[in-house]
Specification:
Layout lengths: L2 H18 L4 H12 L4 E2 H8 L3 H14 L2 E4 L8 E4 L3 H26 L10 H31 L2 H11 L1
Antiparallel strand pairs: 1-3, 2-3
């Protein structure tokens, strides 16, 4: 496969994967472009490469910076803003896991914690018991997932993932 075709396929694949994870496809494509670019890029360069609007690029760059997977780069003597992506795949995966945990898992745990010891009102005792049972089980699963993510983040990710894979073989 030629470089131009492989480059385009990488951008499309990362955009598709992002969409599958519930992240804006364009945000994924911008992230992929910055990951594979050897040098930082300006918003204008991204617009030219991906043929998307300035507003779309601006909004998605802001989101990528908030996620912590893209950072601004300042080049001496140049007033333009440049952007670069984390190049270490493990660091990037850990940052994405950290951010997804913060945005998705932590609120679920907080909400389910508030649902502990539900009391009956107009519902039957059987319904209350079932709701308590299910919310407790889901909270337990969420808390276990949270622990695994925390261990992975603290361990740096790569070593723990490799250990888990060796156990699963």
């Amino acid at each position: 496969m030629k470089y131009a075709q492989a480059r385009q396929q990488m951008i499309q694949t990362w955009g598709q994967l992002s969409a599958e994870w519930g992240i804006n496809r364009t945000m994924g494509q911008i992230h992929a472009l910055l990951m594979i670019s050897p040098d930082p890029m300006t918003a204008d360069q991204i617009i030219g490469e991906l043929a998307i609007s300035r507003g779309n690029v601006s909004m998605n760059l802001r989101n990528l910076v908030e996620w912590g997977v893209v950072h601004k780069v300042y080049i001496a003597g140049d007033r333009k803003e440049y952007f670069a992506s984390e190049k270490d795949a493990w660091k990037m995966a850990l940052q994405i896991a950290r951010e997804r945990k913060r945005r998705e898992l932590d609120p679920v745990i907080q909400s389910l914690t508030q649902l502990q010891d539900i009391e009956g009102d107009s519902a039957s005792e059987k319904e209350v018991t079932e709701l308590n049972k299910i919310t407790s089980q889901i909270l337990d699963v969420a808390m276990q997932i949270d622990k695994v993510i925390e261990i992975g983040i603290r361990a740096g990710g790569q070593s723990i993932v490799r250990k888990l894979i060796s156990v699963l073989r």
